[in-house]
Design goal:
By secondary structure, the protein is α/β, with parallel strands linked by helices. 37% of the residues lie in helices and 14% in strands. Bound molecules: 4'-deoxy-4'-aminopyridoxal-5'-phosphate.
Length: 359
Amino acid sequence: MDKIAASAPQLQGVIPYDPKYLPADMMLSANENPSDVAPEIRREIERAIRKVELNRYPDPLANDLRDMIAEDNGLTREWVLVGNGGDELLFNTALAWGGPQRNFLNFPPTFSVYAANARLTNTNVIDIPRKSDDLFGIDEDAAIAALQDKARPVHYTIIANPNNPTGKMSDTTFLNNILKSTDALVMVDEAYFEFSRNTMRPYLEENKNLVILRTFSKAFSLAGVRLGYILAHPDVIREYIKVRQPYSVDAVSQAIARVVYANRAAFEPAIDGIIAERERLIEGLRSIPGIKAFPSDSNWVLFKMDRAKEAWQHLFDNGILIRDFSASTELTDCLRATVGLPEQNDALLTALRDFVLRR
Ligand code: PMP
């Protein structure tokens, strides 16, 4: 046959997610940890991988890892589910709680994958734009009103906390108000919570509709491994298990994650270092004329400047890759730089200062 039937209608016009990853000396675009896993932990990982039976399917639910995560969070394994990166669990959220004639409440500008997954699952997206103040806060009254609109019931909502790409957390009282105002599934995406030192975990048992998403990709330096997890009521976890790919987390990833999780305390000094560098980066950016740096609870800084696109190119020409949001209507003239190692942050500040002062 020299032709093929059309793909699913919801794919028409979809542009695949593009992380805009270009090779550069300093990769400050994807909010990764700038330090790889320490050599002694890597050696332990190598030993663990050697024991993996590659001819056998992995434990579908990664129960050993589930138990470790559960114990650390004061829960049992029924409250935990691991996935192939947080991304898989985000997609599973849309599969399990979205669908035709169902509504997802979104708070842009935020992680674009949320809306993309809704579209792929034929879920209707209700957008409540964040406030255009420096914190990009959620309009609390509008959010509660949307959640209580009986004519258009919301089935799930996702709040990135801290919010990517803007950087700040939502207020805990507000999140609790949201949880109490609706029976919709409320996912609080804590992909970066290690950098904000704030979690909704204390409110899990009292809110059956709360799902907390976490990842090994950021604080634990494992973006290359693809491991995320959710914490939620066992009834909710059971629904997620219905839609997940049975073997989505391979045996090698499970082995690596177990070693890293067992050694999680060893990552704390680097996390503290990133938090300190974040504040130094914000100050440095603010000292450059014409740059407005937004506050951040995360491992990146969003900033706004004239000729942002040209500045991005200047940085790239100097071996520094950051993320360009300048063409987006909600974040005009904005760029986002991941907090790197001190020397990388210095290089970024020097190159930006040169760009601004040169002309
Ligand atoms: N949530 C947010 C807000 C993110 O920024 C990311 C990564 N870019 C993820 C979830 C998913 O991360 P991963 O799939 O690497 O676990």
